[in-house]
Specification:
Elements lengths: L6 E13 L6 E13 L9 H9 L3 E4 L3 E3 L8 E3 L6 E3 L1
Antiparallel strand pairs: 1-2, 2-3, 3-6, 4-5
This protein binds zinc ion (ZN).
Length: 90
């Protein structure tokens, strides 16, 4: 059984406060995540091994945005999202 069958997948946007490394200004940015929420139960064709893996599985989200454009009109430079982890558990 594939790991992705354990989860319901949904894109979500979350707001994070990020600081631009070029101008030092902090602002709120919408960041795209792919949220994988653990299903409430396994499909019927799951075997014992799948059940054990499913028991350990945890909902998590994967960050999809790596770069944002600075909101400061005097800067406007793009910078990498380094302060947020790329995978976060829910
Ligand atoms: Zn900036």
């Amino acid at each position: 059984m594939e790991e992705r069958e354990f989860f319901d997948e949904r894109p979500e946007q979350r707001t994070h406060t990020l600081t631009c490394p070029h101008c030092g200004k902090a602002d709120e940015y919408p960041i795209a995540w792919l949220v994988r929420r653990k299903k409430t139960s396994l499909p019927r064709h799951a075997d014992e091994r799948d059940r054990a893996r499913f028991a350990k599985a945890q909902s998590y989200m994967v960050r999809r945005d790596d770069m944002v454009g600075c909101k400061n009109v005097r800067c406007r430079k793009r910078f990498e999202v380094t302060t947020l982890q790329s995978v976060a558990f829910l």
